[in-house]
Amino acid sequence: MAIDSDSDMDDAGLRSKKSKGKAAEKKRDKGKAKETAETLAYTWEASYTRSWDTVQEDESGSLQGAVEDWVVRARRKRLLAPSAAIRRTIIRHLVLLLDLSSAMVDRDMRPTRFDLMLQYAREFIVEWFDQNPLGQIGVVGMRAGVGERICEMTGNPQDVLKSISERHRLEPQGEPSLQNAIEMARSSMSHLPTHSSREIVLIFGSLTTCDPGDIHDTLDTCVRQKIRVSVVALAAEMKICREFCDRTGGQFGVALNEGHFRDILFELVPPPAQRGGGGSGTVGGAGGAPSADLMMMGFPTRLPDTAPPSLCACHGELRSAGFLCPRCMSKVCDVPTDCDVCGMMIVSSPHLARSYHHLFPVRPYAAMGTADRGARVACYACARAFPTAPAGNTSEGMSPVGRYRCPECKCDFCSECDVFIHDVVHACPGCGR
Predict the structure, then answer these.
(1) 378 and 321, same structural domain?
(2) Which residues, at least 6 apart from 113, have a Cβ–Cβ distance to it below 8 Å?
(3) A Gene Ontology MF term for this entry (predicted)?
């Protein structure tokens, strides 16, 4: 009996030691898991890890010069693109297709694909109307296998921004339908004249599409009607999206991160170049140059806020301020727009001038390697003195002496004025071209 009791006690001791060992292992595993969760960053934070390695201190220990150099270098790369005499359409009609499927709730782009898409879409609309004041934008959403018209095509940016500002109306759900959305966008542009461009910009985050018919028939129709389709993909490249862009002459890009998403989206802000020649089904045929028809425009008379209230033709409301159509003298609220009474396009001279600069862009300034004898010691535009000592890094078209010369008037400008002239002013202060 004693032996049996001793054996039972030994077995109990072994079991207790094993249980203690397992508990200790569980504690260690929990500690490791907790440590891993604390040390590892989320997927959408990966691009922000060790961001301090991208910049270096200068001789004075400041990071300001390195950051400015990095920003200016990225802008200079865009400004030094080859420029040639190309034909562009200044009257644009664009339909923005937004993916509102369940794939947009993924958090690989912070905070979510959906929130980031709405933020960049608002910025894109503001910049697009600033560069293309004579154009119009419509918004169509894709969710639950159908296309939803979010905003009718209009030339008022406030109406477009208001349509996508109510987030609860755009909650993602279901699967997207690429064919239904493109058909809805195409039908809204079928009545447009030949002198205006027809464009579709698609922000697509799903890897599937739920189409009721053959989507290649829709592609052939877009090619025949010369509708240019551009796609910004957030997940991966889909063959049908690439085929739409290739055959219609649009642009295709897959966003690698948040910054790249914004870059490829804002590349669609300038008017696309019109390509000539080619038959249907090719890039040249899809983007072939339309006939050079003359169109009639009217410059309205602006009414002040102190004018007597009168009914506007666009909303049927009593308003004091507004614009009078030069043909039928009807009142409209905003310009540019088409008169609801006589149908004439009403524009203002600043809008026409802002659209015109795309046809004759400012030629890129040449980066000077050294300062010529007798050259100005300060920038021609802002009068800030040029640096006396040349910089060490001169890659990617950067001038070591901070001078950028206009090829027409031979005036020297600093890097900040060079970027400001090409992005905002669109005219050289020296020669006026």
Answers:
(1) no
(2) 103, 104, 105, 106, 107, 205, 234
(3) zinc ion binding
